[in-house]
Design a protein that fits this description.
Helices cover about 35% and strands about 15% of the residues. The protein is of the alpha/beta class. Strands 7-6-5-8-9 form a 5-stranded parallel β-sheet, with helices on one face. It has a 4-stranded parallel β-sheet with strand order 2-1-3-4, sandwiched between helices. It is globular, with a radius of gyration of 19 Å. It starts with 15 loop residues before the first helix and ends in a 6-residue tail after the last helix. The model has no long low-confidence stretch (mean pLDDT about 95). Bound molecules: N-carbamoyl-L-aspartate (NCD). GO terms for molecular function: amino acid binding; aspartate carbamoyltransferase activity. Pathway: Pyrimidine metabolism; UMP biosynthesis via de novo pathway; (S)-dihydroorotate from bicarbonate: step 2/3.
């Protein structure tokens, strides 16, 4: 698997073989991610963590992943703390940071920012979420969580529910699942359905998604229910957000309609779309999913920076 020195801007940058390789490597990282084993295979490397949008899991799990492998992290969390607040362009900022580290992890409010950064950086750039665009590393940990729970990714019946328009995690995830022949059901109010370009892309790749607004009609078919937050911050008009806020609330009542081994996932943070009563059921996988960010990002950093845990 050759992913040394490569950018990860979109999940389309990876082949199915490369994804499988990264998931296999992620499995091997688990004892290292938990600190039960220690191998500082990225000793001497530096990661630049640039987060220009709020983040808990993605930022901290990249830091944890790097730290477990002996890679130093330099970071900025707010645009106001950088020279961008003085008017410096993203391109110039990236060119500077490029000189201070070996890999750049970027979260930015604008779709396309990671692609732009990759153009201006000689070192690899990892997209940690670009506006309503995509979130490929979240997809890797989502796939890892599904594969761990279900044994295989092939042919799973996946229901994606919530904000499919602005939710970047489901954009990357739908594309990746299509590579694995998943059956996708897209549950959202019409105004929050999957953007046309992504919908057309997955159809072109052989997926035949079912679209509906009614979760009750499809939940009994699901192997995985992937719930997303309605992305309030991306609505141009707050009144439009109010119309769809709270549309889906997953509680134990609706889960009684589901297969007993169906898993519920969520990239988090959640608002009210999964009730706390679900946390203690056999369905809940979202906290394990959040932990999986560490081994998966360790595997990715090793692949990109050339660290070999097996050696
Ligand atoms: C998501 C994101 O930032 O896109 N969170 C995450 O990375 N785990 C989901 C969200 O904010 O709703």
């Amino acid at each position: 698997m050759d992913f040394y020195d490569k950018d990860l801007v979109s999940i389309r940058d990876l082949t199915k073989e490369q994804i499988n390789y990264l998931l296999d490597q992620s499995e091997k990282m688990i004892p290292y991610a938990k600190g039960e084993k220690v191998k500082k295979v990225l000793d001497g490397k530096v990661l630049g963590n640039l987060f220009f949008e709020p983040s808990t899991r993605t930022k901290l799990s990249f830091e944890s992943a790097a730290g477990r492998l002996g890679c130093t992290v330099i970071d900025v969390s707010e645009m106001s703390m950088t020279s961008m607040s003085k008017g410096e362009t993203l391109a110039d900022t990236i060119k500077m940071v490029d000189g201070y580290c070996d890999v750049i992890v970027l979260r930015h409010p604008h779709e396309g920012a990671a692609r732009l950064a990759a153009k201006f950086s000689e070192n690899p750039v990892i997209n940690a979420g670009d506006g309503a665009g995509s979130h490929p590393t979240q997809t890797l940990l989502d796939l890892f969580t599904m594969r761990s729970a279900k044994g295989s990714l092939e042919g799973l019946n996946i229901v994606l529910v919530g904000d499919l328009k602005y939710g970047r995690t489901v954009h990357s995830l739908a594309e990746a699942l299509t590579m694995f022949g998943a059956k996708l059901t897209l549950v959202a109010p019409e105004s929050l359905q999957m953007p046309k370009d992504i919908y057309n892309h997955i159809v072109e790749k052989g997926c035949k998604p079912v679209k509906t607004a009614v979760l009750e009609d499809v939940i009994d078919q699901a192997d995985v229910l992937y719930v997303t937050r309605i992305q309030k911050e991306r609505f141009p008009d707050p009144a439009e957000y109010q119309k769809v806020a709270g549309t889906y609330r997953i509680g134990n009542a609706i889960l009684r309609e589901a297969k007993s081994d169906m898993i519920v996932m969520h990239p988090l943070p959640r608002l009210d779309e999964i009730l706390p009563e679900v946390d203690d059921t056999q369905h809940a996988k979202y906290f394990e999913q959040a932990f999986n960010g560490v081994p998966v990002r360790m595997a990715l950093l090793c692949a990109i920076l050339g660290g070999d845990i097996n050696g």
